[in-house]
Amino acid sequence: MREMSIEGAWVREPRIFRDDRGSFHEWFRAPELHEAAGYGLGLAQANCSVSTRGTLRGVHFADVPPGQAKYVTCVRGAVLDVVVDLRTGSPTYRAWEAVRLDDREHRAVLLAEGLGHAFMALTDDATVVYLCSQGYAPAREHGVHPLDPDLGIGWPAGLTPVLSAKDAAAPSLAEAERTGLLPAYDVCSRWYAGLRADAAGATAAPPRVPATRH
């Protein structure tokens, strides 16, 4: 796992075994994610999206707590995957970093609760799968407009962005900040610390001894 420039985000670059039959790689390894974040990704939901070239999804985030951590990869075609720091008070607030995810190198991105996520399909039938720590909860899920100039995300030139009606109507970053919609960095940091403490406690707990029948 390689740490990205935004705290709470990592890229996994798997070893790929190729031969005349095709290829094999391990696209998810729980111990590696635990080592990187200090806690595991509790799997609550697994999603799959298929997008035409130019489709732009995001920037999405969820209220913290509990937020929604994600582990994202592309199993067909290619996308430009973007992590955005929407945590007010963060040292890298408003920063973004992009990673190409495709069906050749099989990179994956892990992003912690409170970070924004978006991607643009670079090919037709771009198929993205992602594991989520929390299930879908409309009341606590939000978005920021992905074309907001205040974010200045460098989407690929030559592609016309295709947005859903919901994403096209998403507020600007300034509006989301003004209305208190964005997660706070100190709240997120406390949440991460609690998850790490819980993980450490679970590791340190003595094994259970089965009850003896008489």
Architecture overview:
The protein is of the alpha+beta class and 214 residues long. It has four helices and 13 strands. The chain has helices at residues 30-37, 165-168, 173-178, 185-204; strands at 2-3, 9-12, 17-19, 22-24, 45-51, 56-62, 70-76, 78-84, 96-102, 108-111, 116-121, 126-132, 141-143. It has a six-stranded antiparallel beta sheet with strand order 1-2-10-7-12-5, with no helix packed on it. β3 and β4 form a beta hairpin. The longest helix is centred in the C-terminal third of the chain and has 20 residues, at 185-204. It is globular. It starts with a strand and ends in a 10-residue tail after the last helix. 36% of the residues are buried.
The number of helical elements comes to 4
Tell me the β content: 25-35%
Apparent shape: globular
The largest sheet is: 6 strands, antiparallel
Computed over alpha carbons, the radius of gyration is 19 Å
Question: Layout of SSEs?
Answer:
Blueprint: E1 2-3, E2 9-12, E3 17-19, E4 22-24, H1 30-37, E5 45-51, E6 56-62, E7 70-76, E8 78-84, E9 96-102, E10 108-111, E11 116-121, E12 126-132, E13 141-143, H2 165-168, H3 173-178, H4 185-204
Antiparallel strand pairs: 1-2, 2-10, 3-4, 5-12, 6-11, 6-13, 7-10, 7-12, 8-9, 8-11
